[in-house]
C-alpha cells in the first residue's frame, strides 16, 4: 500500500517531504497481545489496539529522543521543541490547534522525558480522522516563528523559576546531580535559563530535522476504530520521507559508584526534604521487575514497611515513598520523604534500619502476595481507558518491546521472595547510595546536617537499634502572613494573606452557585457558564486570553461543584498587575460568543459520553441520584446530554447576571502583593447587583430514605463497580466534623475497609469512601471495585464492616491515627498558596468563616470517641441505604 503525495512542507523538514511514496513493509496482528504492528519502509512503526466498546480514541506520537540526547550546550532543546509544536502551523494560527481539538470534544497533551518525547490527542471516535490530521499538521508544519520562539522561551524560563521554587523538585534534581557524574540524568529536562534564551529558529530546526524522523517515531492508536479504517485515513494524509541513517547522540555512560555520596543544601523553605538513590539497571533487566515489587513492599502505600514504621509508628515524617527512574538505560531506585530538620538524622537512621532488616530477614510470603494483587489491580485499572492503553504500549515500544505492555504481569508472577531479598542485597548498599537533603535556612549557630561522608556512613552502619519514638505534638501554624477580611463598598468580600517567602501570588474568586442553583431542566448550566468565562470577553478572544495569560507563565482555571463555582490564578508577583487585568476582564466582561458556546457544548457532551466509559464514575453518580431524590445534589455537575443540548445563550447570560456580582463574590489573595493596590483593583472592578431584592435559591433538606434504594446497570466491562451511600449531615452541623474523623478511620490503605476487604479477603479491585459536604445535607459513599463473581460477597463484607463500626464503635488508637492523618494532610495541603486561597473563599461563602482554615485542626482535635461513635449510629442506617451497581453484561 502506498501513501500519495498531497502537499509540500513549507519549511522542508526531514520527517515529511515532497515527491516520495511510503510503502508498508510489514502488517502483523499479534494475537498473543491483541495489538497490530505495522512497519513502513522508512522505519516508522505503527501500533494499533482495537477497543470496540470505547467512545474515545487516543492517538500518540512517540519519538525516541529526550534530554539524554542533548549535548550540554543545547540542554533543554527537546523540551523547547515540544512546546513549539503547538504554536501554529501554515494552516493554523497560534492557539487554533487546541481550540479546534476542544471544539471536537477532545484534548491534547505532550511531554518530554529523559529518553522520549510524546504527543497525544484524545478525542471522540467519530472525530478521530480530524484529530489525526491536526496532530500530523502540528508535527510536520509547525512554523517555528521567531517571535513565538522568543515568547515561548520566556514561558519556559518562568517554568524553570517555578521548578526552582518547588522544594520537592529541587531536592530530587540535586540527588540526580549527586548520583550521576557523567550521565545526562544529572541535568534538568527543561533546561536552564542561560541556554533557553539562546535557542534560535535555526538551532531548533537543526535538532528537529535530526531527530524528528520516521525511523525514530512510533504512532500508537487505541480506541474503537478498526485497523483498516485507520490505515485508510492515514493513506489520505501526508507522505513520509525515505529512511536514512542518522546518528543519535547518546549520553556518556555512568561509571560504577564505589562509595557513599552525601550532600545537603538550604533554602527559604519550611520543611526538610530527603531523597536517597541507589543505582539500578535498565527497565527491561530482570532485576528491575523484581525491584518494582520490592519498591511496593518497602514504600508504596499506607501498608508499606516504611509508611507503617517511619510515618505511622515513629512519626518521623509526614510523607514517604519509593519509586524508580530508569528506561532504556540504567537509573536510580528512589526513597523520598518529607520531615522536619530536627528529625532528619533519625529519619535516615530509621530508613537504613528498615533496609537492613529487609536484606537480613527478607520478606514474608503474604507481603509478596499482597504486592502482586495490588500491582495487578492497578495495572489493569490503567488499561481500562484508551489513554492508559496507548501510554502503556507507547512506553514499552520505546523500551524496545511493545508486547511487554501485556506480558508484564506474567513476568512479575514468577518472582519469588528469594529474588526480592537477592536484589535488595545487590543494590541497596552504602557504596551504591547517594543521599540529598534540602532543609530550611539555618536559624541557630550549629548546623546539624554538616556531616562528612565518612561520619554519615559510620552513623548509618552503627545504628541498627530501633529508633526512639518521637513524642506527638500539635501541628503549629507555619504560614507567615496575617489574614484579614475586607468588605468592599461594591459588596465583594476580600480575604488577604500576605506571604512574602516566595515571589508568587495565588488568587481564588469563589461564588455561591453550582448544581444547588440549578433545576432538572438546567442541570449543568453553572459549569457550562463558568467554562465559557475564559472563552472570550469584550476585549479579548479565547485564544488571546490563553496566549496572554500563558505568556506570563500563569493560568486561569475554572472550577464548578455542587454548591459553588469559581476561578483561580497562580502567578509570579512581578506579573500580578498584568495577570489581574486578564483575570478581572474574564470575570467582569465575558461576551459568551455563539461559536465558543457551541464548541464548549461539544466538549461537554464529549465529556459526558466519556464519563460512561468510566464505570466507577457512573456508579458514584447513580448513587448520588439515589441518595438525593428531590435535592439538586442528586444531579451531576456536568449536566446530562439532554440538558446540555437544550441550554441556550440566554440561559447562560441570565445565570451570569444573576450570580456574578459583588454581593456574591468571595475573593482571596495569598502571596507577595501590595495590600492597597490589590484592594483598589477589586474595588474598581465589580458592581453591586442591580436587583438586590432577589434572593439566592435555598433548596429544602433531603428527607432520609424510608427503604433501601437500588440501581443496577450493565455494561460490557470486566469488573463490577459498587457504591453504597447514606445521607449525611449539613456542613454547618457539629456532626460534620465528627464524620470527617469517622471517614478517615474508614478510608485509606491503612483503614478498616482497605485492610479487611482488600488485604485480608482479597475482594477489592479498588476500595475507598468519602464524605461530601452540602449546605442542607451531605452524603457518605463507600465504593468497591471487584470481580462480578465476588459482587455479593463484597457487598455483604462492606456492609458488615459498617455494621461493626455502628454497633461496636471505633477504638482510641484508630481515633488518634485518624486525627494525625487529617491534620498532617491538611498542613501539607496548606503549604500551597492556591489551596489556602481556595479554602478561605470556600469557607467564607459557605457561612463557616474564613478563619475556619486556622480553626480546623483544633476542631479535629476536639472530636471525641463518643462523637465518632454517635455519628456512626446516627447515619449508618443499614436497612435504609442506597446501593448502586454497574456490573458486566455477562455476569
Plain-language structure description:
With 891 residues, this protein is of the alpha+beta class. Helix content is 42%, strand content 20%. The protein is built from 31 helices and 24 strands. The strands form 4 sheets. It has an 8-stranded mixed β-sheet, sandwiched between helices. Strands 14-15-19-16-18-17 form a 6-stranded mixed β-sheet, sandwiched between helices. It is globular. The relative contact order is 0.10.
Largest sheet: 8 strands, mixed
- Gyration radius, to the nearest Å? 28 Å
Round the mean pLDDT to the nearest integer and report it: 86
Cross-sheet strand order for the largest sheet: 1-2-3-4-8-5-7-6
List how many beta strands DSSP finds: 24
Shape: globular
Residue share in helix? 40-55%
| Terminal-residue CA separation | 43 Å
Summed up, the helix count is 31
Residue windows where pLDDT falls under 50 for at least 5 positions: 1-21, 463-480
Q: Pairing-aware structural class of the strands and helices?
A: alpha+beta
Sheet-strand content, in percent, reads 15-25%
Throw out a few tags for this protein.
891 residues; alpha+beta; eight-stranded mixed beta sheet; 24 strands; 42% helix; globular; disordered N terminus
Amino acid at each position: 500500500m502506498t501513501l500519495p503525495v498531497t502537499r509540500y512542507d513549507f519549511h522542508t523538514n526531514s520527517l515529511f517531504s515532497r515527491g516520495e511514496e511510503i510503502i508498508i513493509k510489514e502488517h502483523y496482528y499479534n494475537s498473543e497481545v491483541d495489538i497490530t504492528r505495522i512497519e513502513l519502509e522508512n522505519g516508522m512503526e505503527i501500533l494499533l489496539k482495537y477497543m470496540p466498546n470505547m467512545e474515545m480514541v487516543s492517538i500518540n506520537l512517540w519519538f525516541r529522543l529526550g534530554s539524554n540526547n542533548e549535548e550540554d550546550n543545547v540542554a533543554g532543546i527537546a523540551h523547547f521543541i515540544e512546546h513549539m509544536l503547538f504554536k501554529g502551523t501554515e494552516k493554523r494560527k497560534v492557539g487554533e490547534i487546541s481550540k479546534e481539538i476542544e471544539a471536537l470534544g477532545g484534548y491534547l497533551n505532550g511531554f518530554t522525558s529523559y529518553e522520549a518525547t510524546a504527543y497525544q490527542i484524545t478525542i471522540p471516535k467519530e472525530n478521530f480522522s480530524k484529530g489525526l490530521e491536526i496532530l500530523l499538521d502540528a508535527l510536520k508544519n509547525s512554523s517555528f516563528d521567531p517571535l513565538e520562539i522568543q515568547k515561548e522561551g520566556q514561558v519556559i524560563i518562568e517554568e524553570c523559576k517555578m521548578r526552582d521554587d518547588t522544594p520537592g523538585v529541587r531536592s530530587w534534581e540535586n540527588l540526580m546531580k549527586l548520583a550521576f557524574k557523567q550521565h545526562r540524568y544529572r541535568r534538568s529536562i527543561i533546561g536552564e535559563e542561560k541556554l533557553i534564551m539562546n535557542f534560535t529558529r535555526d538551532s531548533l530546526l537543526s535538532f528537529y530535522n535530526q531527530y524528528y524522523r520516521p525511523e525514530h517515531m512510533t504512532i500508537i492508536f487505541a480506541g474503537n476504530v478498526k485497523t483498516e479504517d485507520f490505515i485508510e485515513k492515514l493513506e489520505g494524509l501526508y507522505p513520509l520521507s525515505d529512511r536514512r541513517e542518522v546518528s543519535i547522540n547518546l549520553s556518556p555512560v555512568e561509571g560504577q559508584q564505589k562509595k557513599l555520596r552525601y550532600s545537603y543544601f538550604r533554602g527559604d523553605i519550611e520543611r526538610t526534604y530527603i531523597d536517597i538513590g541507589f543505582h539500578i539497571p535498565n527497565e527491561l533487566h530482570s532485576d528491575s521487575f523484581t525491584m518494582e515489587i520490592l519498591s511496593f513492599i518497602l514504600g508504596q502505600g499506607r501498608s508499606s514497611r516504611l509508611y507503617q514504621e517511619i510515618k505511622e509508628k515513629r512519626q518521623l515524617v509526614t510523607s514517604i515513598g519509593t519509586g524508580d527512574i530508569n528506561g532504556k538505560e540504567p537509573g536510580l531506585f528512589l526513597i523520598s520523604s518529607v520531615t522536619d530538620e530536627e528529625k532528619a538524622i533519625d529519619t535516615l537512621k530509621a530508613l537504613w534500619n528498615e533496609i537492613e532488616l529487609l536484606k537480613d530477614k527478607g520478606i514474608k510470603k503474604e507481603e509478596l502476595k499482597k504486592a502482586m494483587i495490588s500491582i495487578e489491580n492497578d495495572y489493569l485499572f490503567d488499561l481500562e481507558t484508551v489513554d492508559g492503553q496507548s501510554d502503556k504500549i507507547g512506553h514499552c515500544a520505546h523500551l524496545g518491546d511493545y508486547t511487554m505492555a501485556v506480558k508484564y504481569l506474567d513476568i512479575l508472577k514468577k518472582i519469588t521472595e528469594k529474588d526480592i531479598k537477592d536484589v535488595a542485597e545487590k543494590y541497596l548498599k552504602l557504596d551504591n547510595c547517594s543521599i540529598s537533603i534540602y532543609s530550611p535556612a539555618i536559624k541557630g549557630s550549629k548546623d546539624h546536617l554538616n556531616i562528612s561522608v565518612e561520619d554519615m556512613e559510620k552513623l548509618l552502619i552503627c545504628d541498627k537499634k530501633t529508633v526512639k519514638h518521637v513524642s506527638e505534638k500539635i501541628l503549629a501554624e507555619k504560614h507567615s502572613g496575617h489574614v484579614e477580611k475586607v468588605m468592599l463598598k461594591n459588596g465583594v468580600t476580600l480575604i488577604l494573606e500576605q506571604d512574602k517567602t516566595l515571589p508568587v501570588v495565588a488568587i481564588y474568586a469563589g461564588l455561591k452557585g453550582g448544581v444547588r442553583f440549578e433545576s432538572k431542566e438546567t442541570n449543568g448550566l453553572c459549569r457550562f457558564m463558568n467554562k465559557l468565562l475564559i472563552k472570550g470577553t469584550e476585549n479579548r478572544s479565547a485564544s488571546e486570553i490563553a496566549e496572554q495569560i500563558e505568556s506570563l507563565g500563569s493560568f486561569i482555571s475554572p472550577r464548578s461543584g455542587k454548591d459553588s463555582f469559581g476561578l483561580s490564578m497562580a502567578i509570579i508577583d512581578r506579573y500580578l498587575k498584568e495577570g489581574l487585568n486578564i483575570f478581572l476582564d474574564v470575570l467582569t466582561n465575558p461576551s459568551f460568543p455563539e461559536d465558543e458556546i457551541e464548541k464548549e457544548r461539544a466538549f461537554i457532551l464529549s465529556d459526558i459520553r466519556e464519563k460512561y466509559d468510566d464505570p466507577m464514575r457512573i456508579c458514584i453518580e447513580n448513587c448520588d441520584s439515589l441518595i438525593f431524590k428531590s435535592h439538586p445534589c442528586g444531579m451531576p455537575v456536568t449536566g446530562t446530554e439532554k440538558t446540555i443540548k437544550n441550554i441556550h445563550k440566554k440561559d447562560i447570560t441570565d445565570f451570569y447576571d444573576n450570580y456574578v456580582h459583588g454581593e456574591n463574590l468571595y475573593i482571596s489573595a495569598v502571596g507577595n502583593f501590595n495590600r492597597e493596590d490589590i484592594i483598589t483593583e477589586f474595588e474598581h472592578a465589580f458592581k453591586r447587583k442591580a436587583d438586590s431584592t432577589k434572593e439566592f435559591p435555598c433548596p429544602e433538606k433531603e428527607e432520609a430514605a424510608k427503604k433501601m434504594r437500588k440501581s443496577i446497570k450493565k455494561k460490557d466491562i470486566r469488573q463490577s463497580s459498587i457504591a453504597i451511600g447514606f445521607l449525611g449531615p449539613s456542613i454547618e452541623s457539629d456532626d460534620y466534623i465528627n464524620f470527617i474523623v469517622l471517614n478517615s478511620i474508614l478510608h485509606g490503605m491503612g483503614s478498616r475497609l482497605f485492610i479487611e476487604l482488600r488485604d485480608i479477603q482479597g475482594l477489592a479491585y479498588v476500595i475507598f469512601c468519602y464524605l461530601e459536604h452540602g449546605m442542607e445535607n451531605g452524603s457518605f459513599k463507600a465504593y468497591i471495585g471487584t470481580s462480578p463473581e465476588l459482587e455479593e460477597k463484597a457487598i455483604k463484607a462492606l456492609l458488615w464492616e459498617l455494621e461493626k463500626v455502628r454497633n461496636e464503635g471505633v477504638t482510641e488508637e484508630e481515633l488518634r491515627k485518624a486525627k494525625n492523618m487529617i491534620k498532617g494532610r491538611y498542613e501539607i495541603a496548606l503549604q500551597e498558596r492556591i489551596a489556602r486561597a481556595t479554602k478561605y473563599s470556600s469557607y467564607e461563602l459557605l457561612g463557616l468563616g474564613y478563619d475556619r482554615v486556622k480553626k480546623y485542626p483544633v476542631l479535629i482535635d476536639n472530636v471525641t470517641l463518643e462523637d465518632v461513635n454517635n455519628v456512626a449510629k446516627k447515619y449508618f442506617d443499614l436497612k435504609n441505604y442506597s446501593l448502586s451497581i454497574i456490573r458486566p453484561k455477562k455476569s
